[in-house]
Amino acid sequence: MHAFRSHTCADLNAANVGETVRLSGWVHRVRDHGGILFIDLRDHYGITQVLCDPDSPVFSQVEAVRSEWCIRIDGTVKARDADLVNPKLPTGEIEVFVRDMEVLGRSEELPLMVFGDQEYPEETRLRYRYLDLRREAMQNNMTLRSDVVTSIRRRMWDLNFREFQTPIITASSPEGARDFLVPSRQHPGKFYALPQAPQQFKQLIMVSGFDKYFQIAPCFRDEDPRADRSPTDFYQLDMEMSFVTQQDVFDTIAPVIAGVFDEFGGGRRVDAPQDWPQISYRDAALWYGTDKPDLRNPIKMQVVSEHFAGSGFAIFAKLLEQEGTEIRAIPAPTGGSRKFCDRMNAFAQKEGLPGMGYIFWRETNGEMEAAGPLAKNIGPERTEAIRQQLGLGVGDAAFFLGGKPEAFEKVAGKARVAIGEELGLTDQDRFAFAWIVDFPMYEADEDSGAVDFSHNPFSMPQGGIEALDGDPLDILGYQYDLACNGYELVSGAIRNHKLDIMIKAFEMAGYGEDEVRKRFGGMVNAFQYGAPPHGGCAAGIDRIVMLLADTANIREVIMFPMNQRAEDLMMSAPSDPMADQLMELGLRVIPRD
Description:
Strand content: 15-25%
Structural class: alpha+beta
């Protein structure tokens, strides 16, 4: 017999009754029923109930075991009594009577329990991640992650993509986040960077004549953490193709994403890729208050400024006299009660706004009536025009925000989400995808007014080099994102493969030609030797698995994540360097005051 097991803890069933078997695993829990000891023995595959009574030669040893001890048992498979069968377990028809036992690994008192559904602080879970990962939910999440990556690879290979690995130590590149720098021992005073993405290398692969590339790529960004973003490293499905348009990229990657969600989505509806809408960045901001809208929620915001200009509601009327301001309405079908309207007004105040104006429509004496402070101030004619524009009726409501869009847009987007969820309008049993297109190439700093790239700096501007003669804030790029259920899953672009356009595009963002040639010398040189038109995208593996696992915290689907302060509590990172390490690198740490 094998040294540790003849079967896993999920293998045995009624067909094995009478066999002598060997199992190894962890003690999930121990129960003493009148002198008979029952142990749920667990391994990665499942649970088998084993029992031991005083007739067993190892009864005294079994009495000593505690939760999470790692043990090996030899025993005889027995059928459970009919009324004791557990249909929830694959092994629920049988139990194993213990004849011999060996302790493979004792456990100290546990800082968190593996058995049960107890909640523990995230700091505790991350410090003892190896115990946290023993829990069934975490085992399922990590298995799901592995299966998703395997499925993605298979689907990409089936599309004749080749997988190539790109360098982990490289040069710094402006990808929209901070680099992790790596000091060079052999070149004192100089630094490598961990790649924020394989951006330049995958473009160079296209220049090298390979037609299709992909990899499951590690990426490193020194970012502020969020629930849906790792603060240090993450993995993405990175892909690139030559001789393609934007639509070609969509047509290639969409079936891969849809297939994965259909395969692992637990029966939730996945719209066919050809039905995924393409929404401009500007329209997404207007309609949904975000460039990653949740289209499970049918609410679409609208501009209603004309109905408040010169109206009796002085706050909005005076606001509209200022340049660049507007009033937007958030329709709320079935939200027509004062109680709900007051609740949403309080929501806006918690988000830092004075509140949200509202109108709701009710039936009074057999006739429809508009109610609320706004309705009284602007009068029935304007109120009716708003109702007709928004397509609302009795029992519905609308909420209003005003000012410069950049000041209230984010809160409006959050309010739209909250309204949809509270009113039950959001379809929870669906994955709703949308391509967001026509991103602006540049943005201006609010304080300094300086222009910089707003998205991927290596994108082709729409209109080519002629477009770069105009106002940089009006220039759109061939850049696109794929949003799903309120998260950005994919980001990509048709690349700028022409050197003259690339240099001019960087000049508009304040990078001189000499700096471009110095910082991106590899690409500059390569583009002089017949670069093909090319484009691609990257899909976030962690976020895909997060959605499939139905969790809003990305750390639930990463094996060994950092905490929100970018600390690895288990491995004590980051740590202080040793003096000889700093000396060898020619570095000195200057303490912050």
